[in-house]
Amino acid sequence: MNNKERYIQIYKDNIKRPGADKLLDFLLSTHSDFFTCPASTRFHGNFEGGLVEHSLNVYDCLKDYLSRNRVTNEYDWHYSEESIAIVALLHDICKINCYKVSTRNKKDENGQWIQVPFYEFDDSMPYGHGEKSVYMISGYMRLTREEAFAIRYHMGFAGNEDARNVGSAFEMFPLAFALSVSDMEATYYLEEKR
Q1: ∠ CA 97-20-171 to the nearest 5 degrees?
Q2: Which parts of the chain sit beneath pLDDT 70?
Q3: Of 56, 93, 63, 55, which is closest to residue 80 (Cα–Cα)?
Q4: Measured between alpha carbons, how far is 2 from 54 in angstroms, rounded to an integer?
């Protein structure tokens, strides 16, 4: 099973909320490059299909994190399979249609200049990062408050947000903290740049 097939299966098996089918239709449509776009320009997942791979890695990391004994027994955090799938699989849909292939000059192994492809970021709807994903999802289906905060603050302290807001969101909504940890684990330990 390839990444696209696995993503669709997890999505359909877990996300049953009204409007979820329309959002998946959009992700699969010609109006979206979700399944082919990279996750970044120069860092993790900077290759075709990097975003869907990243989303699946975050899903796997979040599932693992939330199944820890300390999380379930001591912290008493319990989330539905639907909430887990929503925040992990959709946290970065703000990146859809934002990466364009361009070329730049680079010296090859012989010192000769050659043109090589690379991704450049070109966001036609500059609405932020996490907040843009929340906005896009909300056009199709309702999020719970905790899901919205988790997606909004999934970058944690690595984002451009006021640190006090990040800390408050993590205290109020543990799913935001868990998603942020899972996003960082996937980004820095599971994924590569090419």
Answers
A1: 85
A2: 159, 193-194
A3: 63
A4: 13
pLDDT in tens, 150-171: 999 998 887 677 788 889 999 9
CA distance 150 to 148: 5
Give the distance from CA 61 to its chain's centroid.
Answer: 12
State if pTM tops 0.70: yes
pLDDT tens by residue, 102-120: 888 888 899 899 888 778 8
Q: Measured between alpha carbons, how far is 19 from 170 in angstroms, rounded to an integer?
A: 28
| CB contact set of 7 (below 8 Å; sequence gap of 6+) | 35, 52, 55, 56, 89
Q: Among positive and negative, which fits the CA dihedral 31, 35, 39, 40?
A: negative
Q: What is the CA radius of gyration of the chain?
A: 17
Residue 94's CB is within 10 A of a number of other CB atoms, namely 23
